Amino acid sequence: MLCRTANELYWMARHIERAENIARLLDVTYRMSLLPYEVIEPGLAWAEPWAVPLITSGLATAFYERFRELSAENVLRFMILDSSNPSSIYCCLRSARESARSVRGAITSEMYEDLNSAWLEMRGYDYDRIQLTGVSAFLEWVKMRSHLFRGVTFGTMLRDEAYHFNRLGTHIERADNTARILDVKYHTLLPSAADVGGAVDYYQWSALLRSVSGFESYRKIYSDVITPRRVAELLILREDMPRSLHSCIHFIHDTLEVLCDENSREIEQASGELYARLHYGKTDDIIKFGLHEYLIEFLDRISALGGEINRYFLVPT
Amino acid sequence: MAQVLLKGSRLADFTPVSGHLYDEMSSAEGAPRPHYQGFSDWLKRTPVDQIAQKREEAERAFHRIGITFAVYGENGGTERLIPFDIVPRIIPASEWRTLERGLKQRVHALNLFLDDIYHDQSILKAGVIPPERVLANSQYRREMHGMDVPGGIYAHIAGVDIVRADEGAYYVLEDNLRVPSGVSYMLENRRMMMRLFPELFATRAIKPVEHYPDEVAVLTPGAHNSAYFEHAFLAQQMGVELVEGPDLFVQNETVYMRTTRGPRRVHVLYRRVDDDFLDPRAFRPDSMLGVPGLFAAYRAGRVTLANAIGTGVADDKSIYPFVPDMIRFYLTEEPILNNVPTWQLSREDDLRYCLEHLAELVVKEVRVAEREAFRGRIVAQPDKYIAQPTLALSTCPTFTASGLAPRHIDLRPYVLSGKSVNLVPGGLTRVALREGSLVVNSSQGGGTKDTWVMAH
After folding, report:
1. Which distant-in-sequence residues (6+ apart) come within 8 Å of B100 by Cβ?
2. How many domains does chain A fold into?
3. Mean pLDDT of all residues in A278-307
4. Which structural domain range is residue A282 located in?
């Protein structure tokens, strides 16, 4: 397969997944912003809930270049509709659709048609229409389009290289995003240490779990109060939790085993090592190491793996 | 009545002056011509709402499949649907036989001409064509001089635009020897007709159109090109890779594509990128679409390009008037298909005639002031212009908002040259959907029809 084709398929999948995760991130922020909070240290801008999506996606600087004031409206405009923010939902869907268009021969017509209609609908949204629809309802729509596209992909695509690069993109992006969303909680939000374990804390954790479709799974598995330790276990180490880091890396490693040949064995080894750390990892060790530190290290590793994939398969020089 | 054409332009809008037009379906008395009898009967007995429903079905299908073309300059590079009309253009077997012979003869002569001007230039030495017409032409590629191409074939795929006028005679309006487009629409139109009206094909002997040579990779300028759909479609139909310039690289005069399993050699490129942009080292240095070193690999005979580099000189407007002479010169045959009568404004007599008649030209968009300015441009550079009479293009019944109505059509058959010269039966029929308009281009309100060649 042409490197360019693989690259487009990979980024098509990443952009769809990113649009979904931005929607999830905004949704959890929106829910959290409805809860009481106060900024304890003035100047600590990220203690504001609406700073969270900007910080986790590394877009705070870009935001302040465009907007002076941190407000719900500005963040929503920036993260959903801004055509100059390459990670806005608008840009993600546009990029995904452009990628699909340029590799139409490599995907099924159902996939193209689905993505095309998602994009056409997206173009019909402006800020007023999103307000009219309701912010949550709009974000739900984004999630549903992503679900739909994934389903069409799964249900129609030949299991060939094109499929593998597509799924690789989905899971690299998802692993990155789950780690970032989980880290959100550590950047933020509790007014004071005394509130840890309090009602606000509980709502924040449950909002976070909901944002990764993990609330119900949590209930099923633990049937108990929400503790950071268990959330970390669920979203990092549980192999049966589809958005957990373990599950994503498992998938990535399996896919790379298929894609790599003798020249690219090192990439497979890197993913294998990452997989082993998650497969045999212990929650205690993570907590001891520090959840935030652990997640930062994970993000570095997944980004390095992405870089290797890029250099070998997608954009060779 | 004459109409002046800018070099490279098409017939402009006009309202036919004479009431007498050749209609493909009906004779002057209004009776269906024999080869349309079957279709005409079908049309009469099929309920109107059923046809309307089929037309909607066709439009939805074209939209969903995404048979579109990109429109430059519109907001965000939009894609548009080329309107498809369900009334086929039908060509009787005997007429097709003549067209086929004439097209083979013409394209054969054009290939001989290209081989000649890049080698011995005997046609120039014999004085049949003024040498400066060829050698000073911007489409003449000095770099190709003395180079042999496989089989002496330059234009592997040629699209020759044919119109029918007056009492039903066919004329060649234009040769397209560079990167002729439209094949995908021709194939999709047929697929659509078979899907919508299987009964029409079941009862009639209509030659199949699927017949296209295999190649190894299709080189496209990319997703923003207006014909990108066609490039992707052809690559898919041929089962070969669709590549863009940056997908390829040249090492040791050999062309490779970058794949996820490492470099893979490419032997044949069906390229849909213009000469100028093929190789920044050989041609336009600012080209981002090309492959550095491609021309060197081509010269070394390490890769075949279809069509060859430098074919544009043979389909240039200034060379067009000489094609009948080429046929006589190379094949010592009389041309089977005629050119549209053409005045060459570089000839004094022709120029005088045209300037005398320019005032009475019915080019309705051109106001007097503009016409005067235009006259100035012609006088300044007469060899840039040719003039042709406005042809009363034949019409074919077409579905319009107010029911079936005659609309002007042309025909682009595709001539494939390799070891032998072959034609895809039929071709792409384009139809000017606006009443009275002669503009069949898809970018200016043109549509397409399926083209049927009767087998007997």
Report:
1. B423
2. 1
3. 92
4. 3-314
